[in-house]
Specification:
Blueprint lengths: L3 E8 L4 H4 L5 E4 L10 E9 L2 E10 L8 E6 L10 E11 L6 H21 L7
Length: 128
């Protein structure tokens, strides 16, 4: 997959990912922006000149009409609302599954393990 970078302002989300153990920065995707497809990706987020290994979910929200990116900075916990962020999608890990809290929590934990492994194989240093 060719690296795709998107820039956006972080907006307040509903807190659903935080409740599932994976707090995210929510980037609204502007109309007309081309993305490779809905799904879960490994990528990098750039904030204030620093790059962070990330787990990224590109989805269409609960309405099916609200395209957004949910970006989890692996090993970080920061309040990012209102800030500008560049996000690069590096590789798609999987497609989306219908939301069910009982299924999502263990699935997200598995995604985080796989993402850490992906980055570690490529020499990234990730805080515990």
């Amino acid at each position: 997959m060719k690296k795709i970078t998107l820039t956006g302002r972080i907006v307040e989300g509903e807190g659903m990912a935080t409740g599932l153990g994976c707090p995210t920065a929510n980037l609204a995707i502007e109309q007309g922006v081309v993305i490779p497809g809905l799904g879960v990706y490994v990528g990098e987020a750039e904030l204030d000149g620093k790059r962070f290994p990330s787990l990224i979910c590109v989805n269409d929200g609960r309405t099916g009409h609200n395209l957004k990116m949910e970006v989890h900075l692996i090993g970080q916990n920061m309040n990012l609302n209102g800030r500008q962020m560049d996000v690069s999608l590096l590789e798609k890990m999987r497609g989306l599954v219908p939301y069910d809290e009982e299924i999502m929590k263990p699935l997200i934990q598995e995604d985080l393990i796989r993402a850490r492994e992906w980055f570690e194989k490529r020499g990234y240093s990730i805080p515990a």
